[in-house]
Amino acid sequence: MPRSVNSVASRARRKKILKLTRGNFLARANVWTVAKNTYEKGLTYAYRDRKVKKRLFRSLWIQRINAAARQHGMNYSQFIGKLAKNNIGLNRKVLADLAMNNPAAFDAIINSVK
Predict the structure, then answer these.
(1) Are 81 and 95 in contact (CB under 8 A)?
(2) Which long-range contacts (CB under 8 A, 24 or more apart) does 100-105 make?
(3) CATH code given to domain 7-113
(4) Each residue of 70-87: pLDDT tens digit?
(5) What DSSP letter does each residue of 37-105 carry, written as one string?
(6) Alpha-carbon gap, residue 99 to 61, rounded angstroms
(7) What is the DSSP letter of 26?
(8) Contact 65, 99 (CB under 8 A)
(9) What is the per-residue pLDDT for 3?
(10) Residue 111: closest CA among 75, 83, 77
């Protein structure tokens, strides 16, 4: 009995990966084994960096709050401590947005905790 191979499915599977790696440099875009490894590594980076993105944004918010609080003679640590003490439940994302886009509202918050 002759050997039966499904070349249509194999080629489709390869084409799918090669299409996803289009735009990569040299062999990473058009050599099957290299492209497959590149694609799999890219998925790993994507998974990891969805977590890292959250860390980076939190640190950005903290830097923005710290810069705004220092303009009022208070550092980030003191400001967050006083917010917690006064039961003001604003998160860092909102505080950073107020510090950047609505300084008057941020001033009001600073004055309420002083």
Answers:
(1) no
(2) 100/64, 100/68, 103/68
(3) 1.10.1900.20
(4) 999 999 999 999 999 999
(5) HHHHHHHHHHHHHHHHHHHHHHHHHHHHHHHHHHTTT--HHHHHHHHHHTT----HHHHHHHHHH-HHH
(6) 10
(7) T
(8) yes
(9) 87
(10) 83
pTM of the entire predicted model = 0.78
Find tokens 């080629």 and name the residue. Answer: 11
User: How wide is the angle at C-alpha 90 spanned by C-alphas 86 and 95, nearest 5°?
Assistant: 115
Nearest to 109, CA basis, from 93, 61, 67, 86: 86
| Tokens read off for 10 | 């194999």
Locate 38 and state its tokens. 């590149």
